[in-house]
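Handout, section B. The chain below has 240 residues.
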Amino acid sequence: MPYRRLPNTDASRMKAMRIALVKGKELPPHKLAYTSRTTIKLEKFLPQFEYGIRRYRDSLLSQNKKNREYYEIVKKARLYLTHFIRVMNMAIFRGELPAETRAFYGIPTDLSTIPSLNTENELLNWGKRIIEGEEFRIKKGGSPITNPTIAVVKVRFGTFLETLSTHHTLSKKTLELSEQIATLRKEADEIILQIWNEVEKTYRTNPEDIRKEKCEEYGLVYFYRKNEIVKFNVAELQDK
């Protein structure tokens, strides 16, 4: 005997509900295999589910597109900060600047490596330190570091700051929609289960092949187990 398999994707959920709803509109209530109460629930819920899925997919698509742009901007900001620190360290190594120069940026005077800039917080923290430190050092009479200058670094870092807020806003919106969809999926599964149970109950006294055919008209999906497929194929051959 085949077993039914409930939908497990958004597309299959919508398909199952749409098929059931079409039957609900085609047939009068007394001929319908599921109750009028379920019909009303389905008519109300399906548009909400479709709209929710559409909003979530649009938000996810927009976020993915913006993410690519954002990570490119992050990469540039990190690159310019790294180059600035590296040039400063090279100037110290050549004796053009004293090791105490690092203190202006909050870097230990004996640390010649690049601080970690891997996370957003690290990039924010060190970006502010480097920019403020270089501007203060120049005010104190220090020679500006060039290639890149702090002005160029500041432009790249400023672009990063501008996109950071948008990035977090989009991520938050997508997460909220994802949580809403999770709730809607649960309700969709409950409605589909209810419809399928009512349909199977209506046709429970029919022979298996007829019951299966009638239920499938309402969107129920059945699968044969492997041993049942073999028996079914053998039976077909014998009939021929």
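Note. The longest helix spans residues 36-93. Compare this with the example in section A.
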